[in-house]
Amino acid sequence: MNSTDTEDALSIGKKREDRGIQLKHRFDPLNLDVKYPDTAILLLQCQENTILLNAAAALSKYATKSDENIRILFDLDIVKNIIPLINHEDLFTRRFAAKLLAEMMAIQSVKDFLLESDYYIPYFTKVLINERDLFMQEFSSLILVELSKEIYGIVRLLEQCPNMNFLYERIQSTDPDVKKNNIEIIYNLIQDPIGVQEIINAENFSFPLIYRLFQEPYPEIQNIALNVIGELLARNKDEYIQNLFRQTKGLDALLNFLDVRNLCRTILYIC
Q: Is pTM beyond 0.85 here?
């Protein structure tokens, strides 16, 4: 064997040795099945992204199983551990953290906890406004939907978010869930006399933006948009809102929408 062959053999041997060392110190992928949620919650404080992501994903899965699981997580103070992760540098960790908290809104205790503070509503509003990721927009807006379903939540939202322009920006989203959540926040707010004035007086208020939602292929979005128009007209008898509705050809938009719906029903009936 010449010197070149010897060097090649040593090089191959070195690579195999290095690979052996790497394999020896490599951990198998972490798969968490939450049986003891308090242990999984402790992992949310880990600095290693892989462990953190898996813990957040596992806890989200655990929460979807039942409201009782959500109560267990809440009693273990998980909300305080989850909130900071919504600003985590890793996108997927942010998503699972926001998803988990959105799922936890199913119980009243979580809503009450968030509404007691002056911090959380502005926090999630900023996430909705500033975050470019559609999943983050979806989950943060879903949290605001749930908070604004009751009168106290509406009052807190109006107190802490005086500018409602972001709602009109987000109903133009390319994502149907983001559209649906934000038009639902508008619907919730206009149930309140002050809320309806805030919605109308917003700089970006626009009937045509709401009319466009009639063209969505999702009946839930269409119905909420229709209800918003109905509530706005019913709660505002003043000439301004009525004239604005006429000037923006609101009646034509409603008639076109109803014609399309009736046509679809006819087609379904024939089929």
A: no
